[in-house]
Design goal:
The complex is a heterodimer of chains A (264) and B (822).
Chain A (H helix, E strand, L loop, with lengths): L4 E6 L5 H12 L5 E9 H7 L5 E4 L5 E3 L2 H26 L2 E9 L1 H9 L4 E6 L14 H9 L6 E6 L7 E6 L3 H16 L4 E6 L14 E2 L2 H11 L1 E7 L2 H6 L2 H6 L4 E5 L1
Parallel strand pairs in A: 1-2, 1-6, 2-5, 6-7, 8-9, 8-11, 9-10, 11-12
Antiparallel strand pairs in A: 3-4, 7-12
Helix pairs in contact in A: 1-3, 2-3, 4-5
Chain B lengths: L2 E2 L32 H12 L7 E4 L6 H14 L6 E5 L9 E5 L3 H25 L1 H31 L2 E6 L2 E8 L2 E2 L2 H6 L2 H58 L4 H16 L1 H7 L15 H5 L5 E4 L9 E4 L4 H5 L1 E2 L2 E3 L2 E3 L5 E2 L2 H5 L3 E5 H6 L3 H11 L1 E2 L4 H4 L13 E2 L3 E6 L1 H10 L2 H5 L2 E4 L3 E3 L2 H17 L7 H15 L4 E3 L2 H17 L7 H15 L1 H12 L9 E3 L1 E10 L2 E14 L4 E4 H4 L5 H18 L8 E7 L11 H13 L2 E3 L2 E3 L2 E2 L5 E2 L4 H15 L6 E5 L10 H8 L4 E5 L2 H9 L17 H19 L6 E3 L20
Parallel strand pairs in B: 2-17, 2-18, 9-14, 14-17, 22-27, 24-25, 27-30, 30-31
Antiparallel strand pairs in B: 1-31, 3-4, 3-8, 5-6, 6-7, 10-13, 11-12, 15-16, 19-20, 21-26, 22-23, 23-25, 23-32, 28-29
Helix pairs in contact in B: 1-2, 3-6, 4-6, 6-7, 17-18, 18-20, 19-20, 23-24, 24-27, 24-28
The chains are: A alpha/beta (264), B alpha/beta (822).
Chain lengths: 264, 822
C-alpha cells in the first residue's frame, strides 16, 4: 500500500490517533504525500442557527442548547487539535503533510478531495456501540463515494486500536487487484513485523490439483469466522465483482473486528 | 642406672620396605580414619540409633581428619538407607500467604512438578485458542450482533419516526441532534422562519419529543452494555470451565490417591477460570492490555500453578548427606527470596528456598560447631528444629520479634535428620556445662584421639590417606620413601617414636608443599628428598626466634656454659612453642644454700614467674632433700633456686632433676659438668619421671653446642622413660653415631648426680649413712655441719656457705655482663 497520495478524513468522533498510526505504517515503506481534511458539515451549521437546536451528548446523555457560537467553538477546537496532531506527525512521518479545513456537504466535499488521492483513510470508532458513523456518513456511503471517483481510490477503515491483531490477511480472488492487495499487504506485514496470511474464494473440487494450502471462504459469515480465528490487524479485500459476488462489503463494514482496506 | 644411647635408639625410622607399592597412585582411597576405633564405634552407634536426641558431637582438633572420618562413615550409613521423601510447596489458592507443604515418595515430586509445568504449557495455548474457537466466536458474535442489532433497530426506528416528522438525525462533534429537513437539506433559520407558525411549532415539538426518545435510548445504553458484558463473561466461563476440566481431568486421575493434590488441582481449576481474561491478556490476545496487569512477566503469573520442588530425590542414591559449611540462620532453616516488581519487593511460594535442614531431611547434616555457634540465631534455630521435629522458615527479624513486611508463612516441614556437629573438646564441654538443651539433643560424643599407635597397619593406612589427598587435589603421587619420611615426621609431630599424629591436616599441608617442590624440579613423583626439603623449608620459615635465642647464647648475652664444671649450676632445658613450631633452649639453673630453718625458696614463685606445676615440683624437691638427708632432724638450711636470665614465666616440672642437682651441688660443694644438659621430673624419693618435648630439648642443647663447636663430651641426660619418645633430627642422630654428642638416660637422681659430678652417688649403709667421699655423703656431711652450726650459734646466726657459679679449678671466670635483657 505504498500509495503516493494519502487522504485522511477527520471526524471529531473518530479515533484520530489510530488512523495516524496506520498512516505511519503506510508511510514507512516510502515517501507519501499526506493530506488531512477536516470537513464541517453544512447541515450542522444550518441547524445551529435554529432557535430550538439541541445537542444530545453521547457521554453523559445530557441535552443542551446548540447555537452557532457553541458549534463554532467545538469545531474550531477540533480543527486546532487535529492540526496540531498533524504538525507533530509531519516530523515523525518525515513526509509531506497538508491540513485542509473544508465546509459543505460532507460527501460532496469528500468526493472533491478524492480527486487528488490514491487512498482514503478513515478512523472508525467502536466506542458508541455502533450508534455513530463517520461524520454521519455510513461506511457504505463512503464505499460508494470512492467507487464513483474517476481514478481508482482505495479505502482504509482503521479500527481502534490499530496495533492489535496477529497478522495481515489478504483475500485473493486471483485478480490483478488482488495481486496489488497482496503486495501492499506484504509491505505492511513487513513494516509491522507480522505474518502475511492469504485466504481465497471457494472453488470447485475439480479445480484442485493438490491439497489446498490456503483457507477458502464462500460468504461473509465464513470470512467473519476466519477473521475471528486469525485475529488479523488488517484485512485487505480487492474490490472486484468476484469478491462482491461472495462478500457484501456494506454488510462487512458494519461489524468487523479488524481494520479493513478495500483495494481498487 | 645411666645408659648411653646408641644412634639407633634415638630415632625410629620407618622401613621403606613396609610399603609394597610403586606410588600412592596404586592405593585405593581410605574409607575410615587412622586409628580412631573408639570414635568410629561411637559414630556408628550414633548413626544407627533412631531414637530422638541421639545426634552426634565429634570432639577433636580441627587438624585431625575428623571431617574425612565422618564423611566416610556417614556416607556408608546413608548408602544403606533408602532415599527419603520429596518435599514440595504448593500454592494455597484460598490463603496465598500460607503455602502448603507436600510430602511425596522420592521421585514423585519431580513427576508432579513436571505435570504442573506441562499443565501451564497446555494452559497457555488452550485458553487463547479457546477464544479463537469457532463455536466460541460464533456464540460471542451472536451476543454482540444481537446487541448491536437492537441498537441499530432502535436508532432506525427513531430515524424513521423523525423522518415522518420532517426531521433528520445529525451527528454533532459530541453527540446527536435532530434537525428539520426539506429536500435533503437542513433548514436554516431564515427558511425556518418562513414556515407557517403552526408548522414551526410542530417542528419544535417534534424535535423535543424525538430528543426525549433519543435520550431514553442513550440512557438505557450502559445497562444494556453491562448486560452484554455479563452474558459474554458467563459464556466465556462455560467454555473455560470445559476446557480447564479437560486439562485437569488427566492429572486428577493420575494423582487420585493423593487427597492433598486433588484438592490443590481443584484450586488450580478455580483460579484458572477466575483468571481466564488475564491469561488471555498475557498471551497477547483480547482482554485488558498487559501493561495494566500487576505482573512483570507471564512467568510470574503462571508460577501460581507450578510446583516448588523444594527437595528432589528423584535421582535416588540413598539418604542425603549435607555438609553445611556456612551455617547461617537462612542457610540452615531456608529462606524466602524476593524479587523486585514495580518498585516493590515481592515474594511467593516459588521463592521458598530450602535450608540445610530441608536438604538433609531423611539423612545426615554435618556442621562445624564453631561456625554454627558464631552465626546469630543459628544454634537456637537448630535446637528448636530438633526439639519440634520440623523445619520452619523464619527470618532473623522474626527471631527478634521485629516488625517485617507482609510475607509468607510456609507450612513447616516434618524433620527426620541426624545432626553431626564437629567441634573442639572445649566447645563440647562448655555446651555440656552451660546449655541444658545440649545433652538432650546431642547424646553421642565421638572423641577423636590426637595421636594413634605407630603400627605397621596405621602406617599403611596413612599411606592410603596421603594417596587420597594427592589424588583428590591432583598432586603428584608419593613414592614409598616419601611416605616413610612422612610417617617419621608424623611421629616427630607428636614427640613419640611409638605414636603417629592424628592431625592429618598438617600432613596434608606437607604433601602439598612437597608436591610444590617436586614440581619445581620437574619430578613426576614426590620422594623423600622433596618431603625433607618441605620440612626444612617449613622450619626455616618459623625458626627466626630460635635463631635469635641461639645467637644470644653464642654471643654470651645469655650465659650458658657448655664445658668445664661449675658449683651449684646446671643446664636445664625448656621448650618454647610458637604456633605449630617448638624448639628447645638451655636455661642456667642455680642454687644457693646457707644456714637456715629448712626453707627452700623457689625464686620464680616468689617473683610470680613460676607456675603452679613448677611450684609443686620445688615442694617435692624440698620434701626429697628433707627425707633423704635429715629424716630425723630439722633441716637447718635456707636454700634458693632460680632460672637465671629468665624473664618470662616458668611452668612445668621437667627441671626438677636439674634443680635438685644444682641444690645438692651447692650443699655438697661438688662441682657439676656444664657440658651436659639435664631434663627430667622427679618424685619425692628421687625416682626420675618422663617429661615432654624431649626431642626439642635435646636438639636445643645440641644446637648451642654445635654453634660453639662440639668437643665430644657434650650431651643431654634425659629420663629413661623418654627413650620411646625420641625421634631426633637426623643431624643429631649422625652426631650421636660418630660420638661427637651423647644422650644418656637416667632412672634415679643418683644417676644424674654421678654423671654430672663424676663422683659415686653412694649407697646408704645400714646406719643410714653414705660413704664419705660419695656425692650423697658430702651432702649429708654438709647438712650435718649446718645442723651443728645451728646448735652452736643459735637460730639467729646465718652463715653463707656456698656461692653459686663459684668456679672450681680450672676456674671459668665470672659470667659476662649481659648485652641486653631479652
Amino acid at each position: 500500500m505504498n500509495r503516493r497520495r494519502i487522504l485522511i478524513a477527520l471526524d471529531p468522533a473518530a479515533p484520530r490517533r489510530d488512523a495516524l498510526e496506520a498512516v505511519a505504517t503506510l508511510c514507512r515503506r516510502g515517501q507519501a504525500e499526506l493530506t488531512a481534511v477536516f470537513i464541517e458539515d453544512a447541515n450542522l451549521s444550518r441547524l445551529a442557527t435554529l432557535p430550538f437546536a439541541r445537542e444530545i451528548r453521547v457521554t453523559g446523555f445530557a441535552s443542551r442548547a446548540l447555537d452557532s457560537n457553541l458549534l463554532r467553538l467545538q469545531l474550531d477546537a477540533c480543527a486546532r487539535e487535529f492540526e496540531q496532531a498533524f504538525e507533530q506527525a509531519r516530523n515523525r512521518l518525515r513526509t509531506q503533510v497538508r491540513f485542509r479545513r473544508l465546509r459543505g456537504d460532507v460527501l460532496t466535499e469528500l468526493r472533491r478531495a478524492l480527486a487528488d488521492a490514491d487512498l482514503l483513510v478513515v478512523g472508525r470508532s467502536l466506542q458508541s456501540a455502533g450508534l455513530r458513523t463517520w461524520l454521519g456518513v455510513a461506511p457504505e456511503q463512503l464505499v460508494d463515494a470512492v467507487a464513483q471517483s474517476p481514478a481508482p481510490v482505495s479505502l482504509l477503515f482503521v479500527d481502534e486500536p490499530w496495533a492489535t491483531g496477529r497478522s495481515v490477511l489478504v483475500l485473493d480472488d486471483g485478480s490483478e487487484v488482488a495481486q496489488r492487495a497482496a503486495e501492499q499487504g506484504a509491505a505492511i506485514a513487513e513494516a509491522d513485523d507480522l505474518p502475511l496470511e492469504v485466504c481465497g474464494l471457494h472453488i470447485s473440487e475439480e479445480d484442485y490439483d493438490e491439497p489446498d494450502p490456503i483457507p477458502r471462504i464462500t460468504d461473509l459469515a465464513e470470512l467473519r469466522r476466519l477473521c475471528a480465528q486469525r485475529s488479523p490487524r488488517l484485512l485487505l479485500l480487492p474490490d472486484t465483482p468476484k469478491v462482491r459476488e461472495h462478500v457484501d462489503l456494506r454488510e462487512l463494514l458494519g461489524d468487523l473486528p479488524a481494520s479493513v482496506a478495500i483495494i481498487r | 642406672m645411666i645408659r648411653t644411647l646408641e644412634a639407633s635408639q634415638v630415632r625410629l625410622e620407618t622401613p621403606v620396605s613396609l610399603f609394597e607399592f610403586a606410588t600412592t597412585a596404586d592405593l585405593p582411597p581410605l574409607q575410615d580414619g587412622i586409628g580412631q576405633e573408639r570414635a568410629s564405634r561411637a559414630l556408628r552407634f550414633g548413626l544407627d540409633m533412631r531414637a530422638s536426641g541421639y545426634n552426634l558431637f565429634v570432639l577433636g582438633d580441627p587438624a585431625t581428619d575428623r571431617r574425612h572420618l565422618v564423611d566416610g562413615l556417614v556416607r556408608e550409613a546413608a548408602a544403606e538407607r533408602s532415599s527419603p521423601a520429596d518435599w514440595c510447596y504448593l500454592n494455597d489458592f484460598d490463603h496465598p500467604d500460607r503455602p502448603r507443604a507436600l510430602r511425596l515418595p522420592a521421585g514423585e515430586g519431580h513427576r508432579l512438578a513436571r505435570d504442573a509445568d506441562q499443565f501451564v504449557d497446555d494452559l497457555r495455548s488452550v485458553i487463547p485458542s479457546l477464544f479463537r474457537e469457532e463455536a466460541f466466536q460464533r456464540r460471542m458474535g451472536e451476543l454482540q450482533q444481537g446487541f448491536e442489532k437492537q441498537q441499530k433497530e432502535a436508532l432506525a426506528t427513531l430515524q424513521e419516526e423523525a423522518e415522518s416528522h420532517g426531521l433528520t438525525l445529525l451527528q454533532t462533534p459530541q453527540g446527536f441532534a435532530f434537525a428539520p429537513v426539506r429536500d435533503g437539506k437542513v433548514l436554516d433559520n431564515d427558511a425556518f422562519q418562513a414556515l407557517p407558525e403552526e408548522e414551526q411549532e410542530a417542528i419544535g415539538k417534534a424535535i423535543e419529543t424525538m430528543s426525549e426518545r433519543l435520550m431514553e435510548q442513550l440512557q438505557d445504553l450502559p445497562a444494556r452494555q453491562q448486560r452484554l458484558v455479563r452474558e459474554q463473561k458467563a459464556t466465556a466461563r462455560e467454555f473455560i470451565e470445559t476446557a480447564v476440566d479437560r486439562l485437569i481431568a488427566p492429572l486428577r486421575r493420575r494423582w487420585q490417591g493423593w487427597a492433598a493434590i486433588v484438592a490443590w488441582l481443584k484450586g488450580v481449576a478455580g483460579d484458572v477460570i477466575d483468571n481466564a481474561q488475564t491469561i488471555l491478556a498475557l498471551e497477547h490476545e483480547q482482554g485488558p492490555s498487559q501493561g495494566n496487569l500487576p505482573f512483570r512477566s507471564p512467568e510470574h503469573f503462571y508460577s501460581r500453578y507450578r510446583v516448588n520442588l523444594l527437595i528432589d530425590h528423584s535421582d535416588g542414591g540413598g539418604a542425603p548427606v549435607v555438609f553445611e559449611n556456612h551455617p547461617t540462620l537462612e542457610n540452615l532453616v531456608g529462606r524466602l527470596e524476593y524479587r523486585s516488581e514495580l518498585g516493590s519487593l515481592v515474594t511467593d511460594f516459588t521463592l521458598i528456598k530450602p535450608g540445610a535442614l530441608h536438604k538433609a531431611n531423611g539423612g545426615y547434616l554435618v556442621i562445624e560447631a564453631e561456625r554454627l555457634l558464631s552465626k546469630p540465631f543459628a544454634w537456637d534455630a537448630l535446637k528448636r528444629a530438633l526439639f519440634d521435629g520440623e523445619a520452619r522458615i523464619e527470618t532473623a527479624a522474626e527471631y527478634l520479634s521485629f516488625g517485617h513486611a507482609l510475607s509468607l508463612d510456609p507450612e513447616p516441614i516434618k524433620l527426620d535428620v541426624k545432626v553431626i556437629l564437629l567441634g573442639a573438646r572445649y566447645i563440647y564441654h562448655l555446651l555440656s556445662a552451660y546449655d541444658p538443651d545440649f545433652p538432650q539433643l546431642f547424646k553421642v560424643p565421638a572423641d577423636l584421639s590426637d595421636r594413634v599407635d605407630r603400627s605397621d597397619d596405621n602406617a599403611l593406612r596413612l599411606a592410603h590417606l596421603l594417596g587420597s589427598i594427592a589424588r583428590d587435589e591432583k598432586l603428584h603421587p608419593l613414592a614409598p620413601d616419601a611416605v616413610a619420611r612422612i610417617v617419621d615426621h608424623s611421629a616427630r609431630l607428636v614427640g613419640d617414636a611409638e605414636k603417629l599424629s592424628a592431625h592429618t591436616r598438617r600432613l596434608a599441608d606437607l604433601v602439598r608443599e612437597s608436591d610444590h617442590i617436586a614440581r619445581s624440579v620437574d619430578a613426576e613423583v614426590i620422594d623423600a628428598s622433596h618431603v625433607q626439603a618441605a620440612i626444612d623449608a617449613h622450619v626455616e620459615r618459623l625458626e627466626r626466634i630460635r635463631d635469635d635465642v641461639l645467637e644470644r647464647i653464642v654471643r654470651g648475652t645469655v650465659v650458658i656454659a657448655t664445658e668445664g664444671k661449675q658449683l651449684a649450676q646446671v643446664n636445664g632445658l625448656s621448650v618454647l612453642q610458637i604456633g605449630d613450631f617448638a624448639f628447645g633452649q638451655p636455661s642456667r639453673i642455680t642454687a644457693t644454700a646457707r644456714l637456715g630453718r629448712g626453707e627452700i625458696v623457689d625464686i620464680e614463685r616468689e617473683a610470680r614467674l613460676g607456675g603452679n606445676i613448677h611450684s609443686k615440683a620445688v615442694m617435692i624437691l624440698a620434701a626429697f632433700v628433707g627425707q633423704r638427708y635429715a629424716p630425723r632432724n630439722p633441716l637447718s638450711l635456707h636454700a634458693s633456686i632460680a632460672f637465671e636470665q629468665s624473664y618470662g614465666g616458668i611452668e612445668g616440672d621437667s627441671a626438677t632433676v636439674a634443680e635438685v642437682c644444682a641444690l645438692l651441688s651447692a650443699l655438697g660443694e661438688v662441682p657439676l659438668r656444664q657440658d651436659i644438659a639435664v631434663t627430667g621430673s622427679m618424685d619425692q624419693y628421687g625416682r626420675v619421671q618422663a617429661i615432654g618435648g624431649a626431642n626439642e630439648k635435646i636438639e636445643g642443647f645440641y644446637d648451642v653446642c654445635v654453634a660453639r663447636g662440639l668437643n665430644g663430651s657434650q650431651g643431654v641426660l634425659i629420663p629413661a622413660d623418654n627413650l620411646r619418645h625420641l625421634m631426633l633430627r637426623t643431624d643429631v642422630v649422625a652426631a650421636i653415631a660418630d660420638g661427637s654428642f651423647t644422650v644418656w638416660t637416667m632412672e634415679t637422681i643418683d644417676d644424674a648426680l654421678a654423671l654430672l659430678s663424676g663422683l659415686e652417688a653412694g649407697t646408704r649403709d645400714d646406719s643410714g649413712r653414705w660413704p664419705e667421699q660419695s656425692f650423697n655423703g658430702r651432702v649429708q656431711q654438709r647438712i650435718e655441719e649446718l645442723s651443728e652450726l645451728t646448735r652452736r650459734l643459735g637460730r639467729e646466726t646465718v652463715v653463707q656457705t656456698t656461692a653459686p657459679g663459684e668456679p672450681v679449678p680450672p676456674a671459668s671466670g665470672p659470667p659476662p655482663a649481659p648485652e641486653d635483657n631479652p
